[in-house]
Amino acid sequence: MTSFTVRTGVLLLLLLALAGIWELLFLYAGEEALRSPLDTILALVALLKTELFWGHLMETARAFAMALTIAVVTGLTLGLWLGFHRLSGEILIPMLVGFASIPKVVLYPLVLLAFGLGLPAKVAFGTMFGIPPIALSTISAVNNIRPVLVKAGRVLGLGPAAMARIILIPAVMPEIMTGLRVGFSLCLIGTILGEMFAARRGLGYLLMTAIGLHDVSLIMALTLFLTTVAVCASAVLLSVDRRLRRRL
Amino acid sequence: MSGKWRAGWLALYRLLVLAAGLAVLEVLCAADIIDRLTMQPPHQIAIDLVHLIASGGLTRPILRTMSNAVIASVMALGAGIVLASIIHRIPPLRQALDLVFSTWYAVPVLAFYPLFIVLFGLGNLPQILIGFMQGVVAVIVSMLDGLDRVPRVLRKLARTQKMTPLETALLITLPAAAPWILTGAKLAIMFSIIGVVASEFLMARDGLGFEISYAYNNFDNARMYPLIVLVIAFSVLVNSLLFRWETHLLRQRGLKP
Hints:
The complex is a heterodimer of chains A (about 250) and B (about 260).
Chain A: H1 2-29, H2 37-48, H3 51-84, H4 86-100, H5 108-115, H6 119-143, H7 147-155, H8 160-198, H9 203-213, H10 216-247
Chain B: H1 2-30, H2 42-55, H3 59-89, H4 91-104, H5 113-120, H6 125-148, H7 152-160, H8 165-176, H9 178-202, H10 208-217, H11 221-252
């Protein structure tokens, strides 16, 4: 419990330090470029009360949910296939790693030309970001299954279904969870990036308009909102991740 | 020997998969299922790319993007190593920062780009900063990992030899943690390229990312597609070179078969 208190304390200190740096930057740059932490929070609270914001938020949430679903299903399927089938894995994994290293924004014209402006384009964008980490961690989870576990299953005469349920799934779960956590974050970033370029609705679009209008309050309130949501979601997934790992 | 043969066959299969993909695109373009305004056929893109490179018009943006990515990754590497060394000495700080590091890549860093432009102007600095922010945490995390694995006997050796902290770092800790520093460097370079190109794409006056978005806005397919291919080829090439180097060094240390 004490280590928990210490950690919370240090975390609070960190947050304070961050706010301090932000305030100093604000004093240096002035109203023209930045808003102070307090003003940003006030602007965010005001923004949360507008109907406009919730409309855009729902739009982003819808696109993100679709992108995440597609990314998880495709990523897991791809990962299981390339993990269990050795030849396909050896041929295709380097290509998958290569795809993961591409700055995916440059593919935006392709996505836009293929899907047009709107929901499908941003879903495609989010999916593109989400698949590689999920697939790659699934592959490594499959490769890291300890052979002795499979042997134990065979000795006990488990059928394929029981083997999957009792041995394989629990063995791969922790690492896949890590991939899902990273995939979740990247998928969110991808969806928002997609909205910044390829949409007329959604929080990414709202951010892009704010940049165009040089609406500093809106830019900062939105950045604060997106960062907070992303960090909180990631922290929750991280604790699930750690619990799974501890069980192993 | 058979391992080499196998690797050769695998590379051949990989080329075949790639060729099949290109052939499908070529056929789709020839059959007008993908019309010319949407995408040029692959052979046309290849011809355009050769022309573009030969004309020398790409030298400047390529150099700009590369130099910014290099500066960003060097900064990320330097700052990452120093910060990790400090954080490693203060366990409570590390525990608290652990959460920051694990959630760092969930933060849409690019959302800060507009702020950087307002703060620092539309020069090279905002792009470099984005590349730096993408890279530095990867360096810190792998460096901390490396520091954890420095054998205790080596630290003891440093103490018995009464080495100064600087000597310990240069002669003991850094060499012992080298493989992990290299992993960090690899990630820093990749993430820096991604950060720099992405921010150029959003808003900039120069660089490969900027050239692509400029060509896109002008419906200049003859320029846009070769540029996209160039960026993809460049990042895949850098990534695979770094990967080979890493494998080579890990083998030297006996850390990988």
